[in-house]
Design brief:
7-stranded mixed sheet, globular
């Protein structure tokens, strides 16, 4: 029976749908270029992982990314981010996995080693959260379904990480914290490598 699973939340890369906050500063075409690079990075760091992987698209685009045989295709259910994540975790846990991690496709600093370490940390903790510098989180790992983490959270605000920790403590759920990294949502978030990409 498989032990570990990784969920990747993503959008199919289409002009006008990718990195909309960033697009307000640099335009749709450059924002799509950045998102394609973020997807390339996400594929690179997850392809090496020795676990089953699920690409959860935000809608059915009629086509999917070809990341190889190690990735299953799934689609997010309707609802806010919390409802969509809750259902994705429930779906994957129902398949019999013991540890499940969810990530997005917006974190250029995330690497294979951090994800592997979170799987290890879940041996001793019920949950592991990877805080983002904007107050959200770029990763959540769970050993069992914890619905409280997807309720009463002000999604897309600077309070998401702290509210999530409050829910863990209220529920007396043991947790670990992964390194703090940057998500890429605005022009200020772009590292030098991605600035060069859009200026070439």
């Amino acid at each position: 029976m498989p032990q570990n699973a990784l969920i990747v939340f993503l959008k199919y890369p289409e002009l006008g749908r990718a990195k909309t906050r960033l697009a307000k500063n640099i335009g749709d075409e450059k924002a799509l270029k950045v998102y394609l690079e973020l997807l390339k990075h996400t594929h690179l760091i997850t392809d090496k992982l020795g676990c089953d992987k699920f690409l959860y698209y935000d809608k059915s685009p009629g086509k999917t990314l070809d990341w190889g045989a190690g990735y299953a295709t799934a689609f997010q259910k309707p609802g806010d981010l919390g409802e969509r994540m809750k259902q994705a975790f429930a779906d994957v846990f129902a398949l019999g996995y013991n540890k499940v991690i969810i990530i997005g496709s917006d974190c250029y600093e995330l690497n294979t080693e951090i994800i592997e370490q979170v799987f290890i940390d879940l041996d001793d903790k019920e949950a592991v959260v990877g805080p983002a510098k904007d107050g959200g989180y770029y990763l959540l790992g769970l050993k069992s379904q914890q619905d409280c983490l997807f309720e009463n959270i002000a999604w897309s605000t600077e309070n998401v990480f702290q509210q999530s920790l409050a829910q863990l403590e209220k529920g007396q759920i043991s947790y670990g914290i992964a390194p703090t990294l940057s998500d890429i949502d605005t022009l200020e978030d772009l590292p030098e490598a991605l600035k060069q990409l859009i200026n070439n």
